[in-house]
């Protein structure tokens, strides 16, 4: 990483500790902001957050790895999360999963080479009356059919 | 989405200025009203809300907290989303009323990360409340001050468990704590804290408006009032419904126009599977207890697939802190895979049912204590069907 990039990230984290506070309770909101902006929380970011909150980096790593929406590895700018829980499963999740894999040409758990899309499964997103459902970042899409999925992906292109 | 049966929560006529009414009465009177209503927590466990508030009120501390549990992670539940989205006033003002009743200065809404799209709207609503002096300093001209902060979750089902939720609020891994001590004594940052479900706050708002006596006319003697049910699966009209406690499963099935129903999973993945023969049972704390999830399966459904889906969920969501849950759920799932591969004896499944019973006793928190429920109840009712199909 370039020195200037490092400084930029440090400044960003310093700003976050100013707005959220530098107590332990601020850890999750800070991590969520970094995740949102950078698509992951790098080793360097974890160390800087630990330094500024005055906790051990292992504490930060422990928290990042606990929550499924936080990651240590870079992800795509758009994270597609298909609900795999029972009602969506019964409503035809499998066909949607196949369509997503074929259209994006990646498997679940993978990121497209251009770092645009990451494809994942998630558990119940509370759209059970309108399944199958998925999230793309924070946007929710319901009553999916293979052709609807293709339309939706096109909008992001 | 059909919202039928406008009884208590969904009847707009019941939305009154409860906040003003509460703040102009004594805090202990608010607590007493809630106690007399018989309101029990709507998040699943059904702890009497009035008692919880009374305990927190009597705890001595210079700070107290109110937490609204909007983690809504139980598979098949979505009624809290509707309340947050369309009945925001009931939820947030319910929190202020609770804060006043127990003597708290601050509240948190713990909103699951999956509902991030509601964040801006809810934040604006809080802004509006501050402008109208219904939140912030000296609420409605009284000397009571209270504020609410929204915190997001990050995709962990166990964070809906109240002590794990508090760990998460404090910036830790969402690992459940040993209880006691209970949050009403030792909660957020060690201060007395009440954690209540979204629906519980909404109902409290209405009880303050209409009175305990009016409210307890609905429901049964042990389960007063109504319950919001999130109904999904094989039916014509899925959605959120309000029914009085004591409603039978078969009446619910009629309501949503379900046909050829084989079984109903009540209470989500951690709930119980009710077979056709028991559809005369009722939704109530004393019979079939639920946080609100009702999932319907028709005759064509393979109960093994259903159960596998539930167990995969628990294997993923176990926090891994204690052995019965971390290993137990994996063993139960492996057993199901053995059945699928026609490589499993019935007596081994019976051993796994026993393992499930041990998990119910030995797990540290509600996740591991209830994750064997679907395994045990589906095997009890559908063992023969599952085995004869392979
Ligand atoms: C694994 C697990 C997940 C839970 N998830 C939720 C939830 O999403 N929402 C909720 O209100 N309660 C949930 N609970 C129950 C809470 O621990 C707690 O009992 C509840 O929030 C108390 O509020 P109430 O008394 O108003 O129901 C969960 C419990 C467990 C064991
Ligand atoms: S029961 Fe499961 S979720 Fe609860 S503490 Fe034990 S491992 Fe964690």
Short description:
With 157 residues, chain A is an alpha+beta fold. Chain A is 50% helix and 11% strand.
Protein model, in words:
- The complex is a heterodimer of chains A (157) and B (390).
- Chain A has 157 residues and is α+β, with helices and mostly antiparallel strands.
- In chain A, 50% of the residues lie in helices and 11% in strands.
- Chain A is built from seven helices and four strands, in the order ααααβααβββα.
- In chain A, strand 3 (134-136) and strand 4 form a beta hairpin.
- The longest helix of chain A is centred in the first third of the chain and has 18 residues, at 3-20.
- Chain A is elongated and about 50 Å long.
- By secondary structure, chain B is α/β, with parallel strands linked by helices.
- Chain B folds into three domains: 3-215, Rossmann fold, CATH 3.40.50; 226-298, Ubiquitin-like (UB roll), CATH 3.10.20; 303-388, NADH-ubiquinone oxidoreductase 51kDa subunit, iron-sulphur binding domain (de novo design (two linked rop proteins), Up-down Bundle), CATH 1.20.1440.230.
- Chain B has 15 helices and nine strands.
- Chain B has helices spanning 18-23, 27-37, 49-58, 79-86, 88-102, 119-131, 162-169, 198-210, 212-215, 249-255, 303-317, 323-340, 346-362, 366-370, 372-388; strands spanning 65-70, 106-111, 147-152, 193-197, 226-233, 239-244, 261-266, 272-275, 293-298.
- In chain B, the strands form two sheets. Chain B has a five-stranded mixed sheet. Chain B has a four-stranded parallel sheet with strand order 3-2-1-4, with helices on both faces.
- In chain B, helix 2 (27-37) runs antiparallel to helix 3 (49-58).
- The longest helix of chain B has 18 residues, at 323-340.
- Bound molecules: flavin mononucleotide and iron/sulfur cluster (SF4).
- Iron/sulfur cluster is lined by residues 158, 176, 318-322, 325-326, 363-365, 367-368 of chain B.
- Flavin mononucleotide (FMN) binds at residues 41-45, 47, 69, 71-74, 157-158, 160-162, 195-197, 200, 365-367 of chain B.
